[in-house]
Amino acid sequence: MSSAQGFLNDWVESRVGLGSNISNSRNTSVSYNIKGCWIPLTDNGGRRSLGSREEQGSVRCRRDEDRLGWFPPHFDVSDRMARLVASDPVFRKDNRAMLSRKELFKNTLRKAAHAWKRIIELRLSEEEASEMRFYVDEPAFTDLHWGMFVPAIKGQGTEEQQQKWLPLAYKMQIIGCYAQTELGHGSNVQGLETTATFDPESDEFSFIWWPGGLGKVSTHAVVYARLITEGQEHGVHGFIVQLRSLDDHMPLPGITVGDIGMKFGTGAYNTMDNGVLRFDNVRIPRNQMLMRVMRVTREGKCVQSNVPRQLIYGTMVYVRQTIVSDASSALSRAVCIATRYSAVRRQFGPQDGGVETQVIDYKTQQSRLFPLLASAYAFRFVGEWLKWLYLDVTQRLQANDFSTLPEAHACTAGLKSLTTSATADAIEECRKLCGGHGYLSSSGLPELFAVYVPACTYEGDNVVLLLQVARFLMKTVSQLGSGKKPVGTTAYMARAEDLLQSRCSVQKAEDWLKPSVILEAFEARAVRMCVACAQSLSKFQNPEEGFLELSADLVEAAIAHCQLIVVSKFIEKLQQDIPGKGVKQQLQILCYIYALNLLHKHLGDFLSTGCITPKQASLANDHLRSLYSKVRPNAIALVDAFNYTDHFLGSVLGRYDGNVYPKLYEEAWKDPLNDSVVPDGYQEYIRPMLKQQLRNARL
Ligand SMILES: CC/C=C\C/C=C\C/C=C\C/C=C\C/C=C\CCCC(=O)SCCNC(=O)CCNC(=O)[C@H](O)C(C)(C)COP(=O)(O)OP(=O)(O)OC[C@H]1O[C@@H](n2cnc3c(N)ncnc32)[C@H](O)[C@@H]1OP(=O)(O)O
Ligand SMILES: Cc1cc2nc3c(=O)[nH]c(=O)nc-3n(C[C@H](O)[C@H](O)[C@H](O)COP(=O)(O)OP(=O)(O)OC[C@H]3O[C@@H](n4cnc5c(N)ncnc54)[C@H](O)[C@@H]3O)c2cc1C
Questions:
Q1: Which of 138, 182, 429, 459 is the catalytic position?
Q2: Whose CA is nearest to atom 33 of ligand 2?
Q3: What is the CATH number of domain 314-640?
């Protein structure tokens, strides 16, 4: 097996030198198997050999029986694509922060074109291509083309429209974006001002619009606009619009298009050409309206199909679901950097002058870091479950069963909100966990934060999305007495009466080790917060007014419900058969840490709703502290299990070999400021100043 195919996991004693290794420090050793790779969990000071994983030729072959069947089966694909990208100089990314916007963007185009060439040459499957794009690790127009333009046509186009447009899109003969947001309207999709007016005379639409989309690359867009026919409005629909000539890339007549300018951070999301688009009486053929939900006849009549009109929002549901899995990736990446560096970094230490303490051994470091590690696993599991839920709802929709659509909407909206907010905060926390060096661009964390943080806004502002969850929850509560049994993620509400009365049974710290106890505490908290909101709402004559007035409380209730989903899916995962000695036990510890840390952070909710007593809260905290000690010996193995190459991590602090300090020094010299010893500007500005002071001194 070549180094490009395998995963190095030889754990050997390495030299103990300040900051030159990643190590753990106590004495147990269990085998650990995660994401299909064999990893010995160790804490015997079992340090790994130096040398980045890409460079190593020695590989321990994985055995099939070591695999965790319940992980997505794509480990091999993912591993192969990661190495392919890491070994290709075109995909180099360590110079991004130094490039001007124009250079940066051109380089992104080069990478996208090169990736496409490799995809064709190597005849990569869709899964392989998607993994390759992931490891290239640079936001680009292709994300929107594959992630939104294609799904919009698939989900909202008729069969005939799919047959016409999809082959062109699959072969990249057209490149598309998703143009929905306007200058004045993003969250409020119904309020879009762009109109598509049907003109029966010429069988064409006309548009006036301002979108956020792709400013420099897309030849086509799915544009969302309010449909007007026969002088009447028929809601927002998607329309395929050609923006640029396929010959010379010039905008078509009536179209003004460009980039909206630099965004947050250097490098970061500026590889993406978010754009401005104006239509001035642009005309498109009638059959370019996506007509799965509603058809417009040649005469301009609207014919509603049997699918619910919410399907027009279907692409957003799809993307929100992918964003939850992406949250786990971004979080695990930041946690991998912070954990490895925390094992390398030493500060203070024994009074007798021995070696200083690894900062990972400080309880404060553990209490900040390990809940984030637990969250990375929790989000991975909930992301897998959400993928399943999405596939399930898609299959049902095809069979004209629309019953689970509201739940799918609530789950994707709520979990997108919960996981992206937590991940953005966590990346920043990881930066702080790395002390001063975390602020260096070469730590990889500032760029990761800048690239990631818009996920809290795009694809639905996180608060707006939680309000959607709250609406769904209030509807569920209001139907409790009507005999309609809540199902799926709200099934626990069927036990509302019991949960409103229940008393937590914890008497000693270990009682918090029972999954049923944890689940019940989270269920009781969510139900009580939802019912309290519903009761407050019922006091308003106008429910919409009440909803606005109580929106902050409703958001809290929605968060409680979404956290319950994550906790319960983690617990469900652990009920499955998990091969590998000690693996289940480690995941159980992470599960408890995830849940008990949330409990600790949201203690106000649990205490004020009477779900637990102050004494039980204090026992939970005691227990949480003891769990950190159990994670500590395996912390490095738990982040190695994410199987990230050094190229993908893009962090000097997170290097696999732990060789942080020499590499930090090396990186510093690469900065263009160090190209010359005396800086440009010395003669103009510094020298005259110094001379002036000299003259003044002489005077
Ligand atoms: C080779 C490479 C391969 C692959 C690449 C793969 C993947 C890449 C994937 C993706 C790319 C990822 C990231 C790219 C980065 C950035 C992309 C960002 C793109 C965007 O931002 S696009 C714009 C997104 N915009 C929004 O999200 C707007 C948010 N607003 C809304 O969603 C809605 O307007 C609203 C829900 C907030 C309110 O809408 P409304 O006013 O119409 O709704 P009501 O509150 O009145 O509700 C009416 C009714 O409808 C229900 N509802 C609402 N939304 C949905 C939905 N989405 N699905 C189902 N049902 C929905 C709601 O519950 C109400 O129901 P009720 O029963 O009547 O109560
Ligand atoms: C990097 C990036 C990429 C993007 N890519 C695309 C793309 O490809 N295609 C596309 O069409 N769009 C895209 N967008 C736009 C994005 O989808 C919107 O910005 C997003 O949906 C938020 O809408 P908004 O900007 O109108 O926010 P606003 O709704 O104006 O939000 C502003 C504030 O108002 C609050 N608020 C709004 N409504 C309510 C309410 N009802 N109750 C309480 N509070 C409320 C919000 O919580 C927020 O605090 C992108 C945005 C970014 C940042």
A1: 459
A2: 461
A3: 1.20.140.10
- Given a cut of 70, is residue 106 above it in pLDDT? yes
Asked about 459 being catalytic, the answer comes back as: yes
How much distance in Å is there from the Cα of 496 to the middle of ligand 1? 30
Cα–Cα distance measured from residue 345 to residue 434, given in angstroms and rounded to the nearest whole number: 8
Question: Fold match between 173-305 and 314-640?
Answer: no
pLDDT of residue 17: 21
Q: Are 142 and 89 in contact (CB under 8 A)?
A: no
* C-alpha–C-alpha distance, residues 622 and 615, integer Å: 11
Q: What is the mean pLDDT of residues 186-191?
A: 87
Q: Which atom of ligand 1 is nearest to the CA of 191?
A: 41
Give Cα separations from 110 to 132, 136, 269, 544 (angstroms): 15, 12, 16, 51
Give every CB contact of residue 389 below 8 A, 6+ residues apart in sequence.
321, 404, 407, 408, 411
CATH class entry, domain 173-305: mainly beta
The CA-atom distances, in angstroms, between 404 and each of 292, 317, 411 are 19, 13, 11
* Helix segments in 579-659, DSSP class H: 583-601, 603-608, 614-631, 635-640, 646-649
| Parallel/antiparallel/unpaired status of strands 274-279 and 255-259 | antiparallel
pTM: 0.89
Alpha helix positions (H), 453-542: 462-478, 496-501, 515-538
Mean pLDDT, to the nearest integer, of 467-485? 94
Could you tell me the two tokens for 385? Answer: 């479950």
- What is the 320 CA–ligand 1 centroid distance (Å)? 8
ipTM of the complex: 0.96
Number of C-beta neighbours around residue 329 at 10 A: 19
Mean of the pLDDT values across residues 562-579?
94
Query: Which atom of ligand 2 is closest in space to residue 185's alpha carbon?
Result: 26
Q: pLDDT tens, 134-178?
A: 999 999 989 999 999 999 999 999 999 999 999 999 999 999 999
Residues 182, 224: Cα–Cα separation, whole Å:
10
Contacts of 198 (CB under 8 A, 6+ apart): 204, 205, 227, 228, 229, 230, 286, 296, 300
- CA pair distance 438, 348, nearest whole angstrom: 19
> From the alpha carbon of 177, which atom of ligand 2 is closest?
8
181 is in an annotated binding site: yes
CA 311–ligand 2 middle distance (angstroms): 20
Whether the CB-CB separation of 280 and 220 falls below 8 Å is answered with no
Overall average pLDDT of the 309-316 stretch:
92
Helices 363-398/583-601 angle, 10° precision: 100
The continuous run of DSSP H or E covering 222 comes out as: strand 220-229
Place of tokens 């738990």: 638
Task: Please state, in angstroms and as integers, the Cα–Cα distance from residue 163 to each residue in 142, 303, 641, following that order.
Answer: 21, 21, 42
Tokens of 164: 């016409």
- pLDDT, one tens digit per residue, over 249-296 is 999 999 999 999 888 988 788 899 999 988 888 899 999 999 999 999
Q: Where are the domains of the chain?
A: 173-305, 314-640, 660-698
Of all helices (H) and strands (E), which one includes residue 408?
Answer: helix 405-433
